[in-house]
Specification:
The chain has 13 helices and 17 strands. By secondary structure, the chain is an alpha/beta fold. A seven-stranded mixed β-sheet has the order 1-11-10-7-6-2-3, sandwiched between helices. The structure holds pyridoxal-5'-phosphate.
């Protein structure tokens, strides 16, 4: 159940409307209290196991391993996939930076893939094009023709709650023996051709940070149906301890486990996932009805997809709308409505300037035009109406002509 937050009554129309905030109205207090009452607060405990098995059930994988955050899950996924230093890994350029950073943690290099224009996800045709023409088979592995490096994995990042079109990527990955790591951190509750995200590649990763569809404050999960990989993931995330009594270690491990306290919150949040996804769908539908304005392109859902509508985003065409996405952001901000552009595409990022990059025109245009709108699962209808009305008013004031009311 989503209950309304208590709000000051004086001037409700002036309350700030945040972009995306957690909803904490389920069993969170109860389960966390149970940890405190029983002394099970650390990285072993009944809620860790329960959270793992419940996420595995949702994701449709045999195993799940809880991690301290989504970035740690991605790091471990790359280790499981056997990605080595100086290898190359294909990754979406239009993404939050975490998966690209994780590629560098193992000493490998990102090969950026542009987005497709319809759903803004990794473009499978660009993946195929790079692997078929930009690479050659040599000494039993695929190598980038230009750099000579071995290509060992692909990380499709499902952004904003919508899936990447995975089938062509899986097909070519199988052909060349590449591992597929799904960054499904933004896609819990979404599916591709009726299969839950995270279960389709070799391994999937989730995040439960503060603004994800469910949150533990900070947390993550690695999911896979490969038993050997699941066992290894658990080993690597617990300092690769071979002997729990003697503390003998035969390889370098990490302190990457999630605590029982946070897993308790995760279990409570997961009970509300359907409610959250339904709320996000309702929000998306209302925006789709209310924002049919010249110069605004709406977020869409492919026929083969079921989106969780995690972060509702529109494109603002400056030439038609009369303001660009940043001007609209500032106008809305002055009316206490929080919005945000998408991430700078990572091929433009100073942090990854050493990776080879070409122009990525679609991602660059999306970066210029995209604006994410308030879409917390608990967003009230009157708040959303205020967001829509403000955007319509700005459109009417800024555009070359009155915005027609259409449905
Ligand atoms: C949130 C997110 C992650 C991981 O985030 P953590 O904060 O480490 O849990 C990774 N990739 C993408 C695309 C994300 O949005």
């Amino acid at each position: 159940m989503i209950t309304e937050k208590s709000k000051p009554q004086a001037s409700p129309s002036l309350d700030p409307i945040p972009l995306s905030v957690p909803e904490i109205h389920g069993n969170e207090w109860r389960y966390i209290k149970e940890c405190l009452d029983t002394n099970w607060v650390s990285s072993v405990g009944p809620f860790v196991e329960r959270f793992e098995s419940e996420i595995a059930a949702r994701a449709g994988t045999r195993f799940a391993v809880a991690t301290v955050n989504g970035t740690a899950a991605l790091h471990v996924a790359l280790l499981l996939a056997g990605v080595k230093a100086e290898d190359e890994v294909l990754v979406s350029t239009l993404t939050f930076i975490a998966p690209v950073n994780a590629i560098r943690y193992v000493g490998a290099w990102p090969v950026f893939i542009d987005a497709e224009p319809e759903y803004w996800q990794m473009d499978p045709s660009k993946v195929v094009d790079f692997l078929e023409r930009g690479c050659r088979w040599h000494n039993g592995a695929l190598h980038n023709r230009q750099t000579g490096r071995r290509v060992s994995a692909v990380i499709p990042v499902h952004i904003l709650g919508h899936p990447v079109d995975l089938d062509p990527i899986l097909e070519i990955a199988r052909k060349y023996g590449l591992k597929v790591i799904e960054d499904s951190t933004e896609g819990l509750g979404a599916s591709y051709k009726d299969r839950p995200l995270g279960s389709i590649g070799d391994v999937g990763c989730f995040s439960f940070n503060g603004n994800k569809i469910i949150t533990t404050g900070g947390g993550g999960m690695l999911v896979t149906s490969n038993e050997e990989w699941a066992r290894k993931a658990k080993h690597l995330t617990t300092q690769a301890k071979n002997d729990p009594i003697e503390y003998v270690h035969s390889e370098i491990g990490y302190n990457y486990r999630l605590t029982n306290l946070l897993a308790a919150m995760g279990c409570a949040q997961l009970e509300q996932l359907e409610t959250f996804v339904t709320a996000k769908q309702r929000i998306a539908n209302r925006y789709a009805k209310g924002l049919r304005l010249p110069g605004i392109s709406l977020m869409r859902e492919a026929s083969w997809a079921s989106s969780s509508w995690w972060l509702y985003t529109v494109l603002v065409d400056n030439d038609v709308f009369g303001k660009d996405s940043r001007q609209l952001m500032r106008s809305l901000n002055s009316r206490k409505i929080q919005t945000r552009p998408l991430w700078q595409p990572i091929h433009l990022s100073g942090a990854h300037r050493d990776a080879s990059a070409t122009k990525m025109p679609i991602a660059e245009r999306l970066y210029q035009q995209a604006l994410s709108l308030p879409c917390s699962a608990g967003l009230r209808e009157e708040e959303q109406v205020r967001v829509i009305d403000e955007i319509r008013a700005i459109s009417a004031g800024a555009g070359p002509q009155e915005a027609p009311l259409c449905n």
